[in-house]
Design brief:
Elements (H helix, E strand, L loop, with lengths): L2 H12 L5 E6 L4 H14 L3 E5 L9 E3 L2 H4 L7 E5 L2 H11 L2 E5 L6 E2 L9 E5 L8 H5 L3 E4 L11 H18 L10 H17 L5 E3 L3
Parallel strand pairs: 1-2, 1-7, 2-4, 5-7, 5-8, 6-8
Antiparallel strand pairs: 3-9
Helix pairs in contact: 1-7, 2-6
């Protein structure tokens, strides 16, 4: 490994956000999942949760190709579930709040959310959005403000917009400073990145947890 590559790893790990994540529910198009992964990597998210409860999506292996993810799959941990109880239980163990994108009279504006907390953002599929079951497990819902005729955005676009609002808030709060908390976790992640680099191992095939 070159010194330049090692420095890149150290800078990336130093800015990883261990208290911000994304949940994707029944997203059909792997290209949308890939685009979400790229946005997550860009703002420093180190893991996401993929929940597939619809019969046609409940596969033992989730396939995400390098072209789809632009190489970011290797550096982000994808937690893949087909059981909603297990998925949300795992999320609740690590994050204090779950907010879903959902148009309703009670939805908050994205820019009114406090995104410097330990928070997970839930996005539904391209056809039906977030399911009623998933909504019942959330602490609230929000919407990305729009002023056009169409009141919807592609899921990967909505996710990118939302994550960059989180980035803005966190950057202002100093949460991307290299001297930060969770040093032990960062050291473990750096070692994982080094081992992935040296082994050349790919992470395109994700086995479901449950």
């Amino acid at each position: 490994m070159t010194p330049k590559r090692l420095t890149k790893f150290k800078k990336t790990v130093a800015r990883r956000q261990f208290d911000l994540t994304v949940i994707l529910e029944n997203v059909f198009d792997p290209h949308n999942i890939g685009a979400v992964l790229r946005s997550c990597d860009s703002v420093g998210i180190h893991e996401i949760f993929v929940l597939n409860t619809e019969p046609g999506l409940q596969k033992d292996i989730l396939e995400l190709g390098k072209r789809t993810t632009a190489g970011t799959r290797k550096w982000i941990d994808v937690q893949y579930y087909t059981d909603a109880d297990a998925c949300f239980s795992a999320v609740r163990q690590r994050y204090d709040h779950i907010y879903a994108t959902h148009l309703s009279s009670s939805a908050k504006d994205l820019y009114d959310l406090e995104l410097t907390q330990r928070v997970a953002l839930l996005f539904g599929n391209e056809r039906n959005g977030v399911s009623e079951d998933a909504l019942s497990r959330c602490d609230g819902n929000f919407m990305v403000p729009q002023v056009g005729m169409a009141e919807s955005l592609n899921i990967s676009v909505a996710c990118a917009v939302s994550l960059y609002e989180a980035y803005r808030q966190r950057f202002r709060a100093g949460m991307y400073e290299p001297e930060s908390l969770e040093q032990e976790q960062r050291a473990e992640l750096l070692q994982e990145y080094i081992e992935l680099h040296e082994s050349g191992r790919k992470r395109g095939r994700i086995r479901k947890i449950t």
